[in-house]
Amino acid sequence: MTDSKPRTLISVQERLRDQVAHALRAALISGELRPGAVYSAPALAADFGVSATPVREAMLDLAREGLVEAVRNKGFRVTEVTERDLDDFTEIRALIEVPTVGRVTRSATREQLEALRPVALEIVAAAREHDLIGYLEADRQFHLTLLALAGNARLVEVVGDLRKRSRLYGLTRLDERGDLVSSAEEHLELLDIMLTGDAPAAESCMTRHLGHVRSLWAEGRELPPEEKSALRLRTR
User: Fold this and answer.
1) Cβ neighbours, 10 Å, residue 200
2) Which of 33, 59, 84, 200 gives a 20 to 30 Å CA spacing to 115?
3) Which of 170, 183, 182 has the alpha carbon at shortest distance from 210?
4) What is the pLDDT of residues 81-128, one digit of tens each?
5) Which domain-ending residue is among 23, 45, 78?
């Protein structure tokens, strides 16, 4: 009996930490937390109505994911990712995921592939319901579970890390325009192609999907004033 209270307390603290981390990810996706800006744990804690400890712990979790970086005696800076970074991340993902999808198409059983259909449907449902966190989580689960069928755990880790570092920017604006639904439906298209056993077609579909995701990033990112001015000059 004496051991139950500490465990309960730790459990409550962990749940609060997870809740704060969830809220912070949502703020990053929506753009409320701006790339390059520094935020202190006490200030964020005041916004959330909690103590600074779970916020600090949650921010450390995000730092391990590459979403923020610690700034000594100030707080945490939201990581800035350039267009070049996004191009590089997409290129690496394509080099890994496209041939792996071909391999899995040739080797996976129908049962293994069909097990992914509920997750693919989840992605579409989340896009239609404007559930951005749900969309990202289901999308992550689909891609990493699919890659895991190749039997290489290290490969899955690498792609998982790339996905964290290249989180979808401007997701809220894309959702408002309805562009997420078409991207979400590509997961069902990929799955149906893989079930036919046509590996080249599956690789082609994955290539197109990754390219589509990259174009969504570009469309969803809000250009800074200086880039907007440069764009206006170029189009005159």
Assistant:
1) 10
2) 200
3) 183
4) 777 888 888 899 999 999 999 999 999 999 999 999 999 999 999 999
5) 78
- Give the tokens for residue 214: 């990259």
Same-domain pairing of 88 and 66: no
Residue position matching structure tokens 């809000």: 222
**Token representation of residue 181:** 């639904």
The answer to the question of residue 205 being in a domain is: yes
Torsion, Cα 123 80 99 186, to 10 degrees, reads 20
The CB-based long-range contact list for 125-130 (8 Å cut-off, 24+ gap) reads 126/184, 127/175, 127/180, 127/181, 127/183, 127/184, 128/181, 128/184, 130/175
Residues 160 and 114 occupy one common structural domain: yes
Q: State the virtual CA torsion across 80, 169, 184, 160 in degrees, nearest 10.
A: 10
